[in-house]
């Protein structure tokens, strides 16, 4: 892959949006903390860059000087975003508090920062003028409008045709071998990435005959560096549905042996990265307690050390063939010309040439076909055709290079969103709710027509799905889960290697760079020099990492410009008071920190916070009234030990779009001023067995579109609860699009409005 491509258009778009927002506020001169002349100069400069960015971002593919120039511009733009946000905060404080002296506004800290940034941009503009860039207007808007039409008028399914080609014979071959009571221990599905190894393994795993052959079947996908403890946890979870995070490895081994003992099992290890025969020996020894004729299916690109001679196992290599030319062409045409799109003869001819050069790799065929579907520009199709190279039998470099051609044709907004996803570990299970909030925290969901950022985010997820860059979609009520193929993850990572870093993925050493997004999979590999970078905007902890209090303190104190801080499942005792120093923070995830008892008062000084996730914090004593100070909060999910939620707390969060009240086992009463949440669109109340009723204010939630009521654990008050819930349901106005009711068995009759309304999704469980 080439040196990192610099994508600057989205951040410039964000800056222009912020400047427009400042102008719209019509702030009186006496309240300004920056010279308006500087702001106008900054806006004029940015607009001058937008005129040539489209051409510059294309020329960088062949010109390193252009690429370096764009990198400088990108860095300055991020600094400008920080400065403008600080200005917005100062403006907000001055409007509600002390008036700024206009005469000295040009000497205020914000004004001085913006002046320096403008001077840096002036210098870059002089350098840019040396290149002969074509002045072009960004043409993404047409594609965006077309995409909105497609998404509005089509189902959520990517394609209506069966896109699993030529795998029935392979499936039958493998199932036949599994049915035989032979000494075969391991079937190793081999082939280059994107060829369909996981797809074939799923076809086998989900076949009904497998349930008759084996007592237990398990599926584990683990593309990271081998850690025995995490593998065991994943296997147990696959069987029981319980995530045993808090057990020591000896106890985990005992639990797994007890489950498997004497059972005939099938274990699928998808993309498992075994580094040595020692790793395999550890794993196989643990699994040996199963009954005779148990089997393992391993789907991996290559594990050369796994052989009968080295492992004392009966071992079968099963090599997947590439698609035939006919299937290859059918698959490409099905994606590039789906849904009745007019088969332009010229585009069809170019498409046939492209499909032939994909060399039978179904993932490449799907992605290129899906991306080209969104373009009717013949030059785009020729760009792919003229630059594509014939895939080698085993090479991945060429595969990534071909996918990169498709990536180059993505709208700039989707490019940036895809790159940000590479900070999440491989095989991470995304969900639409939190990913949209993550994108929002980084300002990636901008609109010129006041479209809600949540709607923009859903449109982007759909756009990436329809281009086959997201896959494995599953929907449950309003929650949509999905993944990125490992090859797509590599594409996003290698396209922007300096943007995102995953500590513990595969490397043992990480060069010191100005990474904007950092995630931690293995805390043992943390290196001090990776911290302290003021440009870092995201820090996320995964895989049951338990950071020390000093590490938590460092994350906060050394990264003042963080937008995202994710300490999910970190088992921390408390969040440091210094959290209020993160004045840019928009997304804070403390989900499943089961030892946290209270929140620091300083957390309520985070005026920019948009997302606060406290679900599963079961020891949290209360959600204080001071939460009302988080005026920009759009999403709140929490658990607590409270019996009732006070008035003038959550009810004051008038920007709230999504509220989740979960696992509040003592909760009997909600806050009475819930009707003040006029912007609320989604309300989820789950696993609150003592909740007696919904407050009468629920009927005043005029924007409510999605309601989920779920009680998985029932108490003695369940009958009273159900009857009172029934009365409240009768009063809710019929503007819901989604309704899910679980665990209200005493509900005697459905409200009349419910029988007449047009809910897109209506689910009833336990009725």
From TrEMBL:
Keywords from the UniProt entry: ATP-binding, Coiled coil, Nucleotide-binding, Plant defense, Repeat
Q: Where is the NB-ARC domain?
A: 168-339
Which SUPFAM superfamilies does the protein's record reference?
L domain-like, P-loop containing nucleoside triphosphate hydrolases
Q: Where is the Disease resistance N-terminal domain?
A: 11-94
Q: Which GO terms describe its biological process?
A: defense response; response to other organism
The answer, when asked if Coiled coil is one of the entry's keywords, is: yes
Provide the coiled-coil residue spans: 39-90
Nucleus found in the keyword field: no
Where's the Disease resistance R13L4/SHOC-2-like LRR domain? 545-760
The domain of life for this entry's organism is: Eukaryota
Q: Where is the Disease resistance protein winged helix domain?
A: 423-492
Instruction: Drop me one GO molecular function for this one.
Output: ADP binding
The protein here is known as: Uncharacterized protein
Q: What is the lineage of its organism?
A: Eukaryota, Viridiplantae, Streptophyta, Embryophyta, Tracheophyta
